[in-house]
From TrEMBL:
Binding site residues for dihydroxyacetone phosphate: G180, G211, S212, S213, N254, I255, D256, T257
Organism the protein comes from: Candidatus Promineifilum breve
Record keywords: Lyase, Metal-binding, Zinc
Enzyme class: lyase
Signal peptide region: none
Pfam families linked to this entry: F_bP_aldolase
E.C. code: 4.1.2.13
CDD domains tied to this protein: TBP_aldolase_IIB (cd00947)
Transmembrane segments: none
Protein name stated in the entry: Fructose-bisphosphate aldolase
Free-text remark on how the cofactor is bound: Binds 2 Zn(2+) ions per subunit. One is catalytic and the other provides a structural contribution.
Active site: D81
Co-factor requirement: Zn(2+)
Residues annotated to bind Zn(2+) 2: D103, E133
């Protein structure tokens, strides 16, 4: 059952975070639903501009609808990730999305507010929530590339002013994460003092953490052992910190890279061990199971596992 992002946030705020996962194909959708049913957790499906170009937006929407019919007990929202203004309008007008993210964080503060306000007015007219971003994460995700030297943490006072001026419903904040597989060096991690300050400036307001894949060392090592050439020092977010962040108002946690790593590991190992193989359906089935297992583990770390029936009672 598709619900609004706002409904999920209302249930989760201050207690747990809702996992938001990007998908690009059928196998990811199947693993996502299967894993969340096993975990009994609500979730958010994210479609990025890149995914909409890769698989065609309407095809992805049809896949979600089809998989939903196989897992009717699932409760989830559908979200546009890192949209520009025109893509936000396309998603709003489609009637399929629960929420959209307008990413104008690369613009000046005033222009970011103006663009977000325009999207908010159009979205709210149709009951759709809007996520915006303030501050800039470093790293690479699809067509988004920000050098680490240009990355900057979100200023709490600016966050409060931005939310009041733009009218957005949730805010993606830069608190030490970054996009892609190469997130941290040394002992760098989440800036909890910054999260606390932002929550104090915006009490009760849903915060979003982007770039939150954990980049498990085991996945990197197995990929490289099967012929990959990933940086062995790749390091992500310590998912044991999710619970602490959730209690400070981080209500949505975006995870994309990890799903790609699981996909790469399963397929590299399969074709390494079966060089005669050519039927991609066999590793595809293995991936669905592996991704579902990954989702169950992440749901536990986010604290969302076991809340499905409670959310159902609240939204029905």
């Amino acid at each position: 059952m598709i619900v609004t992002t706002a409904q999920l946030f209302q249930e989760a705020y201050g207690r747990y975070a809702v996992g938001a996962y990007n998908i690009n194909n059928m196998e990811q959708a199947l693993g996502l639903f299967q894993g969340h049913i096993e975990a009994q957790a609500p979730f958010i499906i994210q479609l990025s501009k890149g995914a909409r170009k890769y698989a065609n937006a309407r095809v992805l929407e049809a896949i979600i609808r089809a998989v939903e019919s196989e897992y009717p007990e699932a409760i989830f929202a559908v979200h546009l990730d890192h949209g520009d203004e025109q893509t936000c309008y396309d998603c709003i007008d489609s009637g399929f999305y629960s929420s959209v993210m307008i990413d104008a964080s690369h613009e000046t503060f005033a222009e970011n507010v103006a663009i977000t306000r325009r999207v908010v007015e159009r979205a709210h007219a149709k009951g759709i929530s809007v996520e915006s971003e303030l501050g800039m994460l470093g790293g690479v995700e699809e067509d988004i590339k920000v050098d680490e030297k240009h990355a900057m943490l979100t200023d709490p006072d600016e966050a409060q002013a931005f939310v009041e001026a733009s009218g957005c419903d949730s805010l993606a904040v830069a608190i030490g994460t970054s996009h892609g597989a190469y997130k941290f060096a040394g002992s760098q991690g989440l800036h909890f003092d910054r999260i606390e300050a932002i929550q104090a400036a915006l009490p009760g307001f849903p915060l979003v953490m982007h770039g939150s894949s954990s980049v498990p060392q085991s996945e990197v090592q197995r990929i490289n052992a099967a012929g990959g050439a990933l940086n062995p020092n790749a390091k992500g977010v310590d998912d044991s910190q999710f619970g602490r962040a959730a209690k400070l108002g981080v209500t949505k946690v975006n995870i994309d890279t990890d799903g790609r790593l699981v996909w790469t590991r399963v397929h590299r190992e399969f074709f390494r061990d079966h060089p005669e193989g050519f039927d991609f359906r066999t590793p595809g089935k293995e991936y669905v199971k592996a991704y579902a297992d990954f989702i169950v583990d992440k749901s536990r770390k986010l604290g969302s596992a076991g809340h499905l029936e409670e959310v159902r009672a609240a939204v029905m």
